[in-house]
Structure formats: C-alpha cells, structure tokens
C-alpha cells in the first residue's frame, strides 16, 4: 500500500485550504479505531473531512459520508464536545518538510484559535491529538506512556511537544546540480536509497517514480550514472520542488498506485481528494474483506467439523438402537423354548419363528432362561428409548449443518473484493452469525438493526430484459423471498443444494420466454454450492408457494408446486466473463 508522503500531504492540504476554509464543524464521527470524519459546512458546500492515523493508510482528505449507525468511540465524542459549532480557520504545517498538520479552530474567522487538532502522518507512529490554545493535550487517538516512549510521551493533561526534527538536508530550488549530485553520490549505493537518505521530504514511492521518469533504475548504483543521467534526474528533482513551491499538482492513477506529480500517470484525476479517498477506501476495504472472509471461513470450518462429529456419534447410537428388535426377537424365542435351556449354557441356537433359520443367542451362565430373556427385553427397551431421544437430536444437528453449509456456500460465492457491496455482504454474514450465537457479541460491533439487510443484490437482465435479483447471503435471501417478491414474480433455487435465492421480476401479464427461464436457472446453479458441476437441478415456483418453517434460521425455505429445470453454471460464468 502506498503511504501518504510529504508531497501527497502537501497537495491534499493545499487543496483543502483552497476549497474548504473557513468551514464550520457540524459533526464528528469515528468510523473505526483509526479513522474519524469531521462534518464541515462552508458557504458553498457541505462535506466530510477524513482524518486517519492507520499505520499503513494515515491520511487527510475529503471523503464519503459516514454510515448511519451509532458511534461508540469516546475519542470522537471528546472532539465533538470541544469543536462542535467552531470554525476550521486554518491548516498549516508545524514546520517546513514535516508531515504534521495543525488544524486550527476558532469561534469565527479572524479570531485566535481556541483549539488545535494536530494530525501526524508518520506511518506506524501516526496520531491525532487535540490540544487547547495553550498546547495542553485534551485527548489523543493513541496515548503514549513514558514506558512506551521516553523521548516523546503523549498523554492527556500534558503539554504537546512536536515530533523530533528530521536530520536530513533540506531540498532547495536554488541548490546547484553539482552540489546536489555531490550529496547524493557521497556514499555510493542504490540510487533510490541515496536520494531518500540525503534529503527530507522524499519517500520510496516518490523517488521510484522520479527515477523511472528519468529513464533510470531505482536500484542501480550511483557509480553507474553518466553525466547525462545525472542531468535528467536533476531535472525531475527540480520539477518536484517547483510543484511543491507553486502548489501545482497533477493527480492521477499509475500502474502501481497513484501520483500527484503526473509521473507514470495512466489516467488523470481532476480532484486529488477523490483520488486519495478512492485509493485508500478500496485498499482498506480489500484488506478488511480478506481478513473477514478468512476468519468466517475458518470459523465455519471448525463449527461444521464439530457438528459432523456430533452427527456421526448420534448416527452410531441410532445404528446400535436398530438392534432393539433383534434383542426382543431373541427374548421371544428364548421364552418360547424354555425347555431347551440347560444350566450353565453360554449360548443357545433356536429356529426363527418365520424363516426357521437358526438364531444363536448369547446367554449369561449364572442366570436361568427366564432371567436371560428378561435381560434381553430390558436391553431392547433401553435401545428403543435411546432411539426416541437420539432421533430428534440428530435431526437438530443435521438442520444446523444444513444451515451452516448454506452460510458457507454464500461465503464461497464472494470470492474476491470488487466493490463495497462484497464487503457489506460479508459483514451481514458476520452479523447473522452473531445473531444466531455462533459468534460472540464482543468479537465484533453489532449493527444498529440486527435484522436489517442491504439490498445490494446481484442484478442482471435476462434476454428479454426482465430483472434478475440474486441474494448474496441469508439475510438478503430472506428479504428477497419474503418481503420483496411480488405475486407475478418467479422464485428459483438449486434443488436441495445450498445456494442463493433467485428472483425473476415480472410485470403483471408478462410471460417469460424459455430463454429467460434457462438464463435464470443457469444463475441459480452458478450461485449454489454446485457451481463446478456441468448441470444442476433447479426448481422454480411462484413466491406464494415458498414459506419459512416456524423458528427456522435465516435463508431456510420450503416450497411446493415447483417445476424443474437443469441449470448450467458454466453458461452463467461465460456470461459474466463477457460482461467484464
């Protein structure tokens, strides 16, 4: 992940100063433990200022509105209490070439600041610190005790101290190429490393882009550069310094990330705020998506293994209970042939009542025939009672396995992060598992409405133009089937296979063609656990014939009056590849 360096921070803060100052603070919201947003209003516009101290993605930029769910963080509440209604009147660097911004707040423009919000963009040491006008720390995103850092502790009530100053040389437009070249090449080494160690304000991403823009290799030794190479590199160096001095930036996408200087740009972006917001939101979402998907998959795997072991134990007990009739038959035979018993016998062979086949019965020699028969009757009764107790337990475990396999299938279908909808679908699965008590509340933050479901279904169009909606998880499946489906729609699902609920939306009087039905069946097969099969049985019926059993878990549905089609998941996959 590309970090916000001095150049990017300067470009972003310059743009904010030009377009968003002064602005009144209307709201403060904390998205997560590394990210707050300030709701700002100017005379022309209203927006949200993202401030993050994430160790890999610390930044400041104008971003998206926060979600509509409660903010439970104390840090944001403390900032809101102090800054609500005040004006953001200035954003300044605390010193030249430092990646620390001083956001100044006053009652109105032109007055002295009442509060300072220091935003320290320094990698894993990033922080956000609120101080009073006298520099006393009111609150900090991350408190740093003297035991953690004897050089610069950060604690409430203590005076705010600037981070230690950098020791590298300060870049200057007035510096000659000869002097600059001498500094960079003083200790021979890789060009990238020498530039970073020689001057302030440089970063790996900046230097790599600068060197490649000069048609050089960042890893080549300074000893291999020709006079022409040095001249080209110095020109790029001067371009960088001029862009900083004149605040003339060219934001855009590169093959590996983004640039604010136009170097290696493959697609320009008009607004640097949008560039930073899109880049870091997408990467952090992707990172969260991968972690969450792995956590949920592992949790389900462990749960299913335990449940399968329990189901196997119950099945073994049921198999043993099937011998109850055998023991009763043996007891009946023994009672019918008491005269055949002799003292001390350990077994006796008697003819079966119906077939006449010989039946060997094990006996306890210390008991007489009647006592042995009573023992067999007792054993038979015990096994029958066990069957009555175990059968409902096995049915319950099998239902639980079927439900979790349905959840597992939903996760398997969300293979990669493409859009915010993919992450949202995974979060809904996590919240569903919390609600069903498979995850602890303390592990994750519960939504404000535990029963709510997003409507970011998979959406496609059939050959005749009818809308096709496909649930991404059990919550969406339930919403699709039992709340959204209309009287004229058709409901599809892979037959007795975990998978998504699929809804073919039809207007009154509309009749789908055979191609529409097959298209829908193909997608119902594709979004099922049998995605890799050549053909998958798919049932479809009217929504009024689909119902949820009382007390059933999310995503579970029964149906009747169904018709059968054979879905071809490869056809749906080919269609998706063609769309992409």
UniProtKB/TrEMBL annotation:
Q: Which is a Pfam family this sequence falls into?
A: NFACT_N
Annotated GO biological process:
rescue of stalled ribosome
Q: Molecular function terms in GO for this entry?
A: ribosomal large subunit binding; rRNA binding; tRNA binding
Keyword Signal in annotation: no
Q: How is the quaternary structure described?
A: Associates with stalled 50S ribosomal subunits. Binds to RqcP.
Organism of origin: Chroogloeocystis siderophila 5.2 s.c.1
Question: Main role?
Answer: Key component of the ribosome quality control system (RQC), a ribosome-associated complex that mediates the extraction of incompletely synthesized nascent chains from stalled ribosomes and their subsequent degradation. RqcH recruits Ala-charged tRNA, and with RqcP directs the elongation of stalled nascent chains on 50S ribosomal subunits, leading to non-templated C-terminal alanine extensions (Ala tail). The Ala tail promotes nascent chain degradation. May add between 1 and at least 8 Ala residues. Binds to stalled 50S ribosomal subunits.
The protein's name: Rqc2 homolog RqcH
Q: Which UniProt keywords apply?
A: Coiled coil, Protein biosynthesis, RNA-binding, rRNA-binding, tRNA-binding
> What sequence ranges are listed for the domain NFACT RNA-binding?
457-551
Protein encoded by which gene: rqcH
This entry carries the following GO cellular component terms, namely: RQC complex
Q: Does the keyword Ion transport apply?
A: no
Homology family = Belongs to the NEMF family.
Q: Which residues form a coiled coil?
A: 286-324
């Amino acid at each position: 992940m590309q970090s916000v360096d001095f150049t990017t921070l300067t470009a972003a803060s310059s743009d904010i100063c030009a377009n968003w100052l002064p602005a009144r603070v209307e709201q403060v919201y904390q998205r997560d433990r590394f990210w707050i947003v300030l709701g700002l209003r100017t005379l022309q516009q209203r927006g949200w200022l993202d401030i993050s101290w994430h160790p890999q993605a610390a930044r400041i930029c104008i971003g998206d509105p926060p979600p509509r769910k409660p903010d439970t963080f104390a840090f944001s509440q403390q900032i809101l209490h102090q800054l609500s209604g005040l004006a953001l009147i200035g954003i300044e660097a605390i010193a030249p070439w430092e990646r620390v911004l001083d956001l100044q707040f006053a009652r109105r423009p032109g007055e002295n600041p009442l509060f300072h919000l220091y935003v320290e963009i320094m990698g894993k040491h990033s922080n956000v610190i609120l101080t009073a006008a006298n520099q006393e720390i009111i609150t900090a995103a991350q408190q740093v005790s003297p035991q953690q850092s004897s050089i610069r502790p950060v604690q409430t009530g203590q005076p705010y101290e600037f981070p230690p100053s950098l020791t590298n040389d300060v870049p200057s437009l007035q510096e000659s190429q000869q002097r600059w070249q001498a500094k960079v090449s003083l200790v021979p080494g890789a060009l990238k490393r020498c530039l970073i160690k020689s001057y302030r304000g440089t970063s790996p991403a900046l230097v790599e882009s600068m060197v490649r823009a000069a048609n050089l290799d960042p890893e080549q030794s300074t000893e291999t550069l020709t006079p022409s190479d040095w001249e080209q590199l110095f020109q790029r160096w001067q371009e960088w310094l001029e862009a900083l001095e004149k605040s003339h930036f060219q934001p855009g996408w590169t093959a590996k990330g983004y640039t604010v200087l136009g170097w290696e740009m493959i697609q320009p972006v008009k607004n640097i705020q949008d560039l930073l917001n899109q880049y870091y939101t997408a990467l952090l979402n992707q990172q969260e998506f991968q972690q969450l998907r792995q956590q949920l998959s592992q949790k389900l795997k462990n749960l299913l293994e335990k449940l399968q072991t329990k189901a196997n134990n119950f099945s073994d007990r049921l198999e043993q209970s099937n011998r109850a009739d055998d023991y009763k038959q043996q007891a009946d035979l023994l009672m019918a042939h008491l005269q055949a018993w002799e003292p001390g016998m350990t077994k006796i062979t008697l003819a079966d009542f119906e077939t006449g086949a010989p039946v060997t019965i094990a006996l306890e020699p210390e008991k007489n025939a009647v006592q042995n028969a009573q023992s067999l009757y007792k054993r038979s009764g015990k096994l029958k009672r066990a069957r009555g107790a175990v059968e409902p337990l096995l049915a319950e475990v099998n239902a639980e396995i079927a439900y979790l396999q349905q959840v597992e299938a939903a996760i398997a279908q969300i293979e990669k992060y493409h859009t915010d909808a993919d992450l949202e679908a995974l979060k809904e699965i996590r919240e569903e598992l919390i609600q069903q008590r498979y995850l602890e509340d303390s592990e994750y933050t519960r939504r404000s409405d535990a029963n709510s479901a997003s409507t970011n279904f998979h959406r496609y169009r059939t050959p005749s133009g009818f809308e096709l909606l496909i649930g991404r998880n059990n919550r969406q499946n339930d919403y699709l089937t039992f709340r959204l489906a209309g009287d004229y729609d058709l409901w599809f699902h892979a037959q007795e296979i975990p998978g998504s609920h699929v809804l073919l939306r039809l207007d009154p009087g509309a009749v789908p063609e055979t191609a529409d039905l097959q298209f829908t069946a193909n997608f119902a097969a594709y979004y099922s656990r049998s995605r890799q099969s050549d053909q998958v049985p798919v049932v479809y019926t009217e929504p009024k014939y689909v119902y949820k059993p009382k007390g059933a878990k999310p995503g579970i549905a029964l149906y009747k009056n169904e018709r059968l089609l054979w879905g071809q998941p490869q056809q749906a996959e080919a269609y998706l590849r063609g769309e992409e």
